[in-house]
Amino acid sequence: MGKNTLMRWCIKVHAEKSGNQAYLSCLPLLMENVGLIFTKEDLNEVSEEVAKYKVGAPARVGLVAPIDVVVPQGNTSLDPSQTSFFQVLNIPTKINKGTIKIITPIELIKKGDKVGSSEAALLAKLRIRPFSYGLVVQYVYEDGSVFSPQVLDFIEDDLIEKFLVGLSMAEKVKEYLKDRNKFVVFVASATPATSAAPAATVEEQKKEPAEESDEDMGFSLFD
């Protein structure tokens, strides 16, 4: 982790000294709050380990809630003079042994809503830090290529399935290449569905000599 300009400089220096230009593909990715993790271990295990490290964060005013925030039922340890905070948010309470007790769990903030000043103040008083921050894998780099982290979600069965689908499509392409008539029929059958030529235009084309028609086109579909 470090300043992006410093990380870019390190990669460029390494490329110049070692002659290894592969890491230069990482330069466009070094934007905003990012870091680099170098590993020889299994990438899935590394991704899972990174996801474990999160820290709690308070609900600040104006922040868009990434999750639903629920205030739990139970004693708050707040004295009765602070009942107004709960009344503003329509949270049912009662006084129990000199402290405020929340009667039922309340969904205070819904995912996607902005945190208001009253919600933020109440959560701060209850010492509830509903949100969390941590590292998220954004890209996967290997041998000069950059991939989406979604590649880590693929299991062996998924790869085999996609490979078999590719093979089935390749066989169809081979059939068209072996028999050009199949390919011509395919194109001709698709043309009327997309647009129909006016009858007058078709008649005019029939009147043209074959030599002029070939000269106008200048190419064949399979040349």
Automatic annotation (TrEMBL):
GO terms for cellular component: cytosolic large ribosomal subunit. Residues 193-223 are annotated as: Disordered. Keywords: Ribonucleoprotein, Ribosomal protein. Residues 193-202 have a biased composition (Low complexity). GO terms for molecular function: large ribosomal subunit rRNA binding; structural constituent of ribosome. The keyword Ribosomal protein applies. Coiled coil: none annotated. GO terms for biological process: cytoplasmic translation; ribosomal large subunit assembly. SUPFAM superfamilies: Ribosomal protein L10-like (SSF160369). It comes from the Eukaryota. The keyword Cytoplasm does not apply. It holds the Pfam family RL10P_insert. Ribosomal protein P0 is the functional equivalent of E.coli protein L10. Belongs to the universal ribosomal protein uL10 family. This is 60S acidic ribosomal protein P0-1. It comes from Dendrobium catenatum.
